[in-house]
Design goal:
Oligomer: single chain
Radius of gyration: 17 Å
Number of helices: 6
Strand content: 15-25%
Largest sheet: 5 strands, parallel
Helix content: 25-40%
Structural class: alpha/beta
Shape: globular
Length: 227
């Protein structure tokens, strides 16, 4: 048996494991395990509603630090809740404390001889007159890329990849990947729901697949753990 390797996911609701009462909402991290070899375990620590700031301040990064081992991986994806500048518990500035907080995640990985990997925020679904809005998560994706380039940190531009995919799918077709439910279809959402941030099961699987394809096409050591 090869050495056991754990891939930790630190992130927000777009990646997180969902409670039964939230289904069919699904996080992309839930679809990840199927792509990796038997000796790889996915430990999805992503939590609904968290930003880099609240994830750190609530002690969730400290918990990862206690359990992460040399040779493990730490995947980091935030931005959606960092956008909430009006919320002092969560809001960060993309070229300020957001980048500073990313540094804390990176340092946690390096201090434990683990491998960090930054993922830019998955896109929200936002069309204006049939044109897809590529700034649905503000400046956070670009701020992450700038930080990664400055400090030579591995990064995959998943925001660009998911933006291009949803734009190509188009206004109507892209709805099938997000939490769009008519009234009466789901016991969890009896009044129906239109949510252009969170994925349904099909959307989570598609986003996971796009991330895996990006890993495959990279020169990251993580690709050697894929099936």
């Amino acid at each position: 048996m090869e050495n056991q390797i754990t891939i930790y996911i630190a992130g927000d609701s777009t990646a997180a494991i969902k409670l039964p009462e939230k289904r069919p909402e699904t996080g992309w991290g839930e679809a990840f395990q199927a792509y990796f070899k038997e000796n790889v375990k996915i430990d999805n620590r992503a939590i609904n509603g968290r930003s880099t700031k609240s994830f750190i301040n609530e002690g969730h990064l400290a918990k990862i630090e206690k359990s992460i081992q040399p040779g493990d991986y730490l995947i980091i994806q935030f931005g959606h809740n960092d956008q909430k500048i009006e919320d002092p518990e969560r809001g960060t500035h993309p070229y300020g404390d957001y980048q500073d907080n990313l540094g804390k995640f990176i340092q946690t990985a390096y201090q434990k001889n683990a491998y960090p990997l930054l993922l830019t925020s998955v896109t929200r679904r936002k069309f204006e007159d049939d044109i897809f809005d590529s700034m649905s998560v503000g400046a956070y994706p670009q701020a992450m890329i700038q930080y990664a380039e400055k400090y030579d940190i591995p990064v995959l531009d998943i925001h660009k990849i998911t933006t291009e995919f949803m734009a190509k799918a188009g206004d109507e077709e892209s709805k099938k990947y997000y939490l769009h439910l008519p009234r009466g279809q789901s016991e969890n959402y009896p009044e129906g729901i239109i949510d252009n941030t969170h994925f349904n099961e099909e959307g989570a699987k598609k986003v996971a697949q796009l991330i895996i394809e990006a890993i495959h096409q990279s020169d990251l050591p993580l690709r050697n753990l894929l099936k």
